[in-house]
Amino acid sequence: MSQEALKEALGKTIEAITKNPVCANAVFRAQTELCDGVCCSIKVRDFETVLVDEPAELGGTNKAMNPVEMVLGALGTCQEIMYAAYAAVMGIPLTKVKVDIKGHIDLRGLFAMDDTAFPGFKKITYETSIESPADRETLQKLVDMVESHCPVYDTLVRPVEVKGEVTINGTKK
C-alpha cells in the first residue's frame, strides 16, 4: 500500500472515531489449541492457521516460533507498522525500518526451579534502524510518536489486567 493510500485509510478511521467515539473500542480475538506435544495452533480471523512450537531443548519439534519469540516479533512488527502509519500521516518518507529484538529469560522460572526467577522475560532490548531522506529532527518526532503510541510496546511496559477462567471436563472452575 502506498503512503498516500495508507494515509487515506487511517484518515477515514480517525474521522469515524472523531464522529463516533464508540468506534474507538475495538476487540481483537484469537483462538488457540494444543495440537501435539507442545505444538499449538493459532486461528485469527480468516487467516491460515499459524503453528507455535518450542525448540527441541524445550520439548518441541522446532516446527515454528515459540510464544516468547512471537511476543518479540509482535513488538518489532507493531513498531514497524506504527512507523509506517505515523510516517504516512505526518508526511515523512521512509526508505526502510527494521527492528532487531532480544528477550532475556531465566529458564529457572519457566521450570519452577527458583521462586525468585520470573517465568517471563526479565528484559527486552531492541534496536530500530530507520532510513529516510527526512531530517533528524523530523525523524525524532516520528520516533517519539511511535514509542509513545505503539500498542504492543504499551502492553509490555504497562500493567494490564489479564484474567481468565478454566473449564475442566465441561465444568467451569
UniProtKB/TrEMBL annotation:
InterPro entries: KH_dom-like_a/b, OsmC/Ohr_fam, OsmC/Ohr_hydroprdx_reductase, OsmC/Ohrsf
Family annotation (PANTHER family): HYDROPEROXIDE REDUCTASE (PTHR35368:SF1)
Record-given protein name: OsmC family protein
